[in-house]
Specification:
Layout lengths: L5 H29 L2 H13 L1 H21 L1 E3 L6 E3 L4 H18 L10 H16 L4 H4 L4 E5 L6 E3 L4 E5 H6 L3 H16 L2 H26 L3 H41 L6 H16 L14 H20 L11 H24 L12 H12 L39
Bound molecules: zinc ion.
Cofactor: Zn(2+)
Family: Belongs to the peptidase M48 family.
Protein name: Metalloendopeptidase OMA1, mitochondrial
Amino acid sequence: MRALPAPLLWMVLKPLQKLLAILLGRSLRKWWVALPDNRRQLMHVWFRRRRWHLAAGLGVTLLILALLLLTHLDESPVTGRLRLLVFSREKYMELAVLTSEAHLEEFAEQLLPVTDPLHQMVEQSVQLLAQRNKDIPEVSKVPWSVHVVESSQINAFVLPNGKVFVFTGMLGAVADVDQLMIVLGHEMAHAILDHSAEQASLSHVVDLLSLILVTAIWALCPGDSLALLGGWAKDKLMELMFNHPYSRKLEAEADQVGLHLAAKACADVRAGPVFWQQLDLVDQVTGSPTLPEWLSTHPSHRNRSGQMDRLIPQALELRETCACPALPPIDPRAVFSKTVHELLEKAKEQGVRGLEGTHEPQSVSTPAGLAVSQNVLASSSKVDWLNKDRVPAVTSPLPAAAGKESQHVLQNTSQQGS
Ligand SMILES: [Zn+2]
């Protein structure tokens, strides 16, 4: 039996710590309420007399805490950003080994054989990304291995130990190998930048501070139901103020570094913004419920596309220094926006004719927007994951994705992200 890695141990102990904080706060409140008036008066006097001692104690504690945090600062590879790492990379690697073993067991029945053309395509892309970026120590020291999972989820994730998991749903959602390289670059960036360790470090510190708040809430709120409500509000506030903005920041950084890795691997980086525009378009026309960005752990598809678009000139410059073959003169971004524009015009015309009662009977049942998106994806990006039975069918240049029902998830769990 192996000992649990420290980050996992903390995850297991977290609910117990919270329960202890609640019990402590609640007991303090009960004790105070039960105290006779004269004893309470005496306590007030005691606190007032020692207020400077108490303030000094608090100051020293804060100083020690600040020193502890400062000694755990670490420089992020590639970007050089300073961040807090409470758990060491080695500890996190142990956790990654456990996690990848669990995933391999979970997906054992759904893994595509290594001889499958889809597996080989992902394998080649990952090896190309790793080979062309081997000057980055975090890339060259990890043995990258690929596992393609037969599942309709549009998702992919990479663990810090170099295990790359790609779902066939994702292979159905990318239009070409360039988009795939950008998605893989993003996921590999999460791994080489130790984003999971960084996120766990932040939530560790936030959780410790939160224990003090939980104790205070349960001690100060007049009743249990109010304390429960206060605790819930505190959780939501911390999520919106710390966890979600931090997660969005890491996603934006992975987009930036992923584009950098893909550019060095000679991908057509201009395909990056198109991928996010495709997803945005699909959301719009299918009316998929999308959370406002501030409620979400990921930036919105539109913002991701916009942010990536701004990084393209720099990525193209980098690509030019890497002895890559010249890019095709036609920009995929221009093709995409032209196709969307033309099809929207066509749909508008059909809509006007439809109002005059001259439209074809079959278009009555098809919302114009849906038809537009189907056409755009079929013609400009060669992906069709919006047809009636939602079978992803990539026509070219990817081998046909053998997906079943396609759902749009691009989700994030504690260890995986898109
Ligand atoms: Zn991500």
